[in-house]
Amino acid sequence: MRMMNARILLVLLSCILSLVTGLVLSRGGGQTITGKSGRPVIGLSMDTLKEERWISDRDLFTAQAEALGAEVQIRSSNSDDTRQLRDVESLITAGVDALVIIPHNGAAMARAVEMAHAEGIPVLSYDRLITDAATDLYITFDNIKVGELQARFLAERIPAGGKLRLIRIYGAKTDNNAKLFKQGQDNILNPLIAAGKVEVVFEDWAEDWKPENAKKITNAAITKAGQGIDAILASNDGTAGGAIQALIEEGLTGKVIVTGQDADLAACQRIVAGTQTMTVYKPLTQLAKRAAELAVKLAKGQPIIAKAETDNGKVAVPSVLLDIVAVTKQNIRETIIADGFRKEADIMAGQ
After folding, report:
1. How many angstroms separate the CA atoms of 286 and 339, rounded?
2. Of 80, 113, 172, 219, which one's alpha carbon is 20 to 30 angstroms from that of 255?
3. How far apart, in whole angstroms, are the C-alpha atoms of residue 40 and residue 17?
4. 3 pLDDT above the threshold of 80
């Protein structure tokens, strides 16, 4: 009876702690689970490794997890939903203790969560939200704020007494983050559009975030609206790069404001060169390392405090949200370079 009372007290204290400091997540009662090597094994299922950003995430995540004594098994699906589900099945069969998924299609990966949970494996959704599933944990940046930051940057550059003629390039429709970026952009732009201060001359979704699709969108926009374009709201640096290729063909580089996101090296070089105007810096080093720490805790069944929640259409997923910052030529040294995310020599190469 005394033991039972002690357990009840512990549960009550845990509930009180949850209300005060955030949602406390715990699976497996704190028991350490290990793979065949005696170390916890983390499965990392990635959408793609074709973009510089995701290669960096993979390397940072792996290094941090290994530093914490875990093994990491990695699969990349090349933006193929069927292949990513097979990758998850492979990782489950391999006996991972926790699964980290960067989904190509958040809805398609709901099945992956079901498969993992059937084997008692917790799932961390990394940067992109898995929708319509009882996902255990989500780590990302405030993606609505990303869109707001991009749009506010443009709003501050509307000419006095005039209006901004704008091309909007969204991300992949299959990526829930792309919809959140758009939502944030809309929060700022819609009142300005209604007031006649912003004119959207063309808008479209860039399938799979591919730069070549962003280039086609920009080409189509210029064909329709002419060269009198003031700005391109590109949702990430890859699509910004594609849009800039179209601007080069039209002799418009440096004459059109171009936004971005991710602080890709090529984007940083473009910002210094003056062909891209800004990027949203999401401290990816912090994201990858923090995700690795959380994954190891999930694998070991240790408690996790998540102070936010994200509605994914089925449940309110416990969430860890990290901060962001707008980067221009004026503050690139104080942000990206000072954080050690990019080397000044690399950014300035070719200048």
Report:
1. 10
2. 172
3. 27
4. no
